[in-house]
């Protein structure tokens, strides 16, 4: 049974539509990540669930109960904010126990819960400090601790890691993963960072311009992006897109474009049969291009290497093909001269095909 | 002078002209007043002609029941206006800190009294308090409630009300500015944590506004101790000495009683009182600064 359900949620500021009708269902104890570029409406969706903004149209249900008319405090939620939102005048213990003190719980119980959570988060020796006396990572931990001391059914996270430096972010991401395993609660997490989304989520909801582009497990979205936006948004380095024309007989199609020609086997030809026109966009992950100087024409592409970025285990080559930029993940240690032309083989079974007009993936693709 | 010492002196050389002007404009009159307070000084004499009496003027005042009365009136006036103004000003700010249509117009209207010259405020209220033709008594008589002797029996209360009317806006705009600069997300976090409107005000907003409120209150208090024009126009200190605040008594002592030395001594008593308040305010600021510095240092060590 879906524990949180959003039905046709619309948010309007004056005449400006921020959300155009969001429909979402989240299963019990699921970690849902809303991801998308700035201004896509992901934070607004979260704030609507929290009750910090008013719903224009639509309804939000928790356990079948409509909640959009309720005050935040009646929704049984805990939230972690991007800028931590700690109470500057209270020490760590007071910050973490504020909600419990408002509920007038017995002092003993409050102290016990604060001590337990502080222990888990390694905050025990900082309980008497004010937020200003803590480092960024510690503040973030207090913000998480404040949410954890409450026994809420649902946790909301609004870009909780984006104010931290890269090293701390990786560390906190791991702690978050541990926290969710321990708590087994509904978690809704907003981020613009697709790596956070991929690593943490049970379900990723990719949003763009106030709409949901696609939702599903990280693997589903990575392997079968429903459209160009999702394909380009998930994955680093991002997917390459090549404009091509479909030519030839129906059982032995060819894909031609500026500087390349691919021959399709019957399986790929069958996939392409779903294309509404002969124009097509081929999506290729940088990791699916393999340097192979003896690769036969028809299943390879020749790229001019302009830049090579060494990142340790591999290099990212920024190449050019017929005036278009392509990125390749290159695992070999053989040195590459910049400006050199190299041949890369490509198995079309790994490629994604999109209709350039609608941006949608061409159906039949899911059979790969 | 070698190069290094010249370099050290440069900033002071640049500051010198400003310091000279400040000394003339600020310190000379102040010194003149302090110097005069030690003399038996009549307006017909120059200060040099006046005879030196040491602390006699201060002693006279120390034992003068009229001065005590005036000091009490000033204290009552200042403390009550600041207390009431703080309550109303902060309350209004908390009430009007929201986005509603016409709110900016409302805010502008609220701060209008502050823009009016004190003499004009005094005149407006004097006419409203007029025993027979004033707005208040005509209204209450019209309602059959009888009349009130506003500027007679209740003179101090009346001038207090007028001051509250004029200066509550000052507290209001500063509190509103303080409120609007509070971290929004902390208030949102409190909402999520289950705080009601009152609890948000009591546990989050007021404590966070406190530094601004303390300084605002002290500024208002310093100002209220120096009040003159409104009361001069409304009651001239009367009836009797019931509204004779210090500033009024000082000016009377100097002009009507022609005792410049005593007036100067009285000014110095007032000055000491105000200095005390200022020192409290600056100390408070200094302590807050030190606390913030300490917090930053601890935070840096934590990394």
**Oligomer classification:** heterodimer
Remind me, CATH topology of chain B? MetI-like fold
Written as H for each helix and E for each strand, in order along the chain, the element string of chain B is HEEHHHHHHHHHHH
- Proportion of strand residues of chain A: 25-35%
Within CATH, the superfamily of the largest domain in chain A carries the name P-loop containing nucleotide triphosphate hydrolases
Tell me the Rg of chain B in angstroms: 25 Å
Strand content of chain B: under 5%
Individual helix count of chain A: 9
Description of the structure:
The complex is a heterodimer of chains A (368) and B (303). Chain A is of the alpha+beta class and 368 residues long. Chain A has helices at residues 42-50, 92-102, 107-121, 136-149, 166-183, 194-200, 218-223, 228-233, 266-272; strands at 2-13, 16-27, 31-35, 57-62, 65-66, 77-80, 154-158, 186-191, 203-208, 211-216, 240-249, 252-257, 260-263, 279-284, 290-291, 300-310, 315-321, 324-330, 341-345, 352-354. Chain A is built from nine helices and 20 strands. In chain A, strands 6-7-8-3-9-10 form a six-stranded mixed beta sheet, sandwiched between helices. Chain A has a five-stranded antiparallel beta sheet with strand order 13-12-11-14-20. In chain A, helix 2 (92-102) crosses helix 3 (107-121), helix 2 runs parallel beside helix 4 (136-149) and helix 3 (107-121) packs across helix 4. The radius of gyration of chain A is 25 Å and the shape is elongated. The mean pLDDT of chain A is 88. Chain B is an all-alpha fold and 303 residues long. Chain B has one domain: MetI-like fold. Chain B is 75% helix and 1% strand. Chain B is flat, with a radius of gyration of 25 Å. In chain B, 28% of the residues are buried. The model of chain B has no long low-confidence stretch (mean pLDDT 87).
């Amino acid at each position: 049974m879906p524990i949180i359900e959003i039905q046709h949620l619309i948010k309007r500021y004056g005449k400006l539509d921020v959300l155009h009708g969001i429909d979402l269902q989240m299963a019990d104890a699921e970690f849902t990540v809303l991801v998308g570029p700035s201004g896509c409406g992901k934070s607004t969706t979260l704030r609507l669930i929290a009750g910090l903004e008013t719903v224009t149209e639509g309804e939000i249900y928790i356990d079948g109960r409509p909640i959009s008319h309720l005050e935040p405090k009646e929704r049984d939620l805990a939230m972690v904010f991007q800028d931590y939102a700690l109470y500057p005048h209270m020490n760590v213990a007071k910050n973490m126990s504020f909600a419990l003190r408002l509920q007038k719980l017995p002092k003993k119980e409050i102290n016990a819960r604060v001590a337990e959570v502080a222990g888990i988060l390694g905050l025990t020796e900082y309980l008497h400090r004010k937020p200003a006396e803590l480092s960024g990572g510690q503040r973030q931990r207090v913000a998480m601790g404040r949410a954890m001391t409450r026994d809420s059914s649902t946790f909301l996270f609004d870009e909780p890691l984006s104010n931290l430096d890269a090293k701390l972010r990786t560390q906190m991401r791991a702690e978050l993963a541990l926290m969710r395993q321990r708590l087994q609660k509904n978690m809704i997490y907003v981020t613009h960072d697709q790596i956070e989304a991929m690593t943490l989520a049970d379900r990723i909801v990719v949003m763009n311009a106030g709409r949901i582009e696609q939702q599903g497990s990280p693997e589903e979205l990575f392997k079968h992006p429903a459209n160009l936006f999702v394909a380009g948004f998930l994955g680093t380095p991002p997917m390459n897109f090549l404009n091509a024309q479909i030519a030839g007989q129906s059982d032995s199609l060819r894909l031609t474009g500026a500087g390349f020609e691919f021959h399709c086997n019957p399986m790929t030809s069958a996939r392409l049969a779903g294309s509404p026109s002969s124009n097509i966009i081929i999506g290729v992950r940088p990791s699916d291009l393999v340097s192979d100087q003896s690769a036969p024409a028809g299943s390879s592409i020749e790229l001019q290497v302009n830049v090579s970025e060494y990142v340790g285990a591999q290099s990212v080559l920024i190449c050019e093909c017929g005036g278009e930029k392509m990125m390749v993940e290159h695992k070999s240690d053989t040195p590459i001269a910049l400006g050199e032309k190299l041949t890369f083989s490509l198995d079309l079974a790994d490629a994604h095909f999109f209709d350039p007009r609608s941006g949608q993936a061409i159906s039949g693709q899911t059979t790969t | 002078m070698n190069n290094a010492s010249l370099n050290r002196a440069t900033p002071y050389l640049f500051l010198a002209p400003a310091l000279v002007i400040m000394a003339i404009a600020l310190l000379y009159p102040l010194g003149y007043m302090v110097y005069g307070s030690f003399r038996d000084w009549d307006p017909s004499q120059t200060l040099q002609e006046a005879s030196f009496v040491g602390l006699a003027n201060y002693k006279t005042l120390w034992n003068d029941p009229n001065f005590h009365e005036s000091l009490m009136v000033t204290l009552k006036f200042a403390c009550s206006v600041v207390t009431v103004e703080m309550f109303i000003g902060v309350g209004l700010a908390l009430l009007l800190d929201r986005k509603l249509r016409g709110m900016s117009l409302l805010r502008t209207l609220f701060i209008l009294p502050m823009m009016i010259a004190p003499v004009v405020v005094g005149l407006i209220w004097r006419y409203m308090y007029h025993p027979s033709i004033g707005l208040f008594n005509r209204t209450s008589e019209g309602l059959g409630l009888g009349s009130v002797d506003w500027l007679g029996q209740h003179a101090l209360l009346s001038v207090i009300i007028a001051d509250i009317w004029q200066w509550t806006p000052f507290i209001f705009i500063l509190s509103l500015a303080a409120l609007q600069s509070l971290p929004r997300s902390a208030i949102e976090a409190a909402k999520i944590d289950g705080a009601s409107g009152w609890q948000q005000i009591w546990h989050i907003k007021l404590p966070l506004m406190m530094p601004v409120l303390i300084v605002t209150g002290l500024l208002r208090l310093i100002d209220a101790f120096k009040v003159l024009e409104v009361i001069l126009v409304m009651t001239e200190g009367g009836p009797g000495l019931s509204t004779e605040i210090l500033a009024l008594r000082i000016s009377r002592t100097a002009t009507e009683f022609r005792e410049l030395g005593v007036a100067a001594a009285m000014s110095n008593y007032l000055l000491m009182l105000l200095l005390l308040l200022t020192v409290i305010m600056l100390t408070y600021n200094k302590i807050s600064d030190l606390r913030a510095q300490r917090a930053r240092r601890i935070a840096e060590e934590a990394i």
